[in-house]
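Re: [ENG-882] Designed sequences occasionally contain unexpected residues at chain ends

Forwarding the minimal case from QA. Structure tokens:
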């Protein structure tokens, strides 16, 4: 009886270790029907992503406007200097 228990013990521990090391992955990270996951489908996520994109575009436009204003000031100064020389 003791011999029977010792032979079953290593088999059980090997099975336990093997089952603990198995990882299960989805074949298709996008849903099986081709749609995105729950996070990407949620309205809150879409709104947050859109707001982030809008903020980025707004900041880029602000930088462009600032450069244009600086350029305009330089050109205005050149024009004013030319008017002064003409007089």
């Amino acid at each position: 009886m003791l011999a029977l228990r010792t032979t079953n013990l290593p088999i059980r521990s090997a099975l336990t270790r093997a089952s603990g090391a198995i990882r299960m992955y989805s074949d298709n990270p996008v849903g099986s029907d081709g749609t995105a996951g729950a996070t990407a489908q949620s309205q809150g996520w879409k709104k947050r992503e859109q707001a982030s994109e809008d903020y980025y575009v707004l900041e880029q436009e602000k930088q462009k406007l600032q450069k244009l204003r600086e350029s305009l000031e330089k050109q205005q100064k050149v024009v004013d200097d030319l008017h002064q020389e003409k007089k």
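QA comment: On inspection the terminal residues look reasonable. Helices lie at 2-20, 38-41, 43-86. Proposing we downgrade this to a documentation issue.
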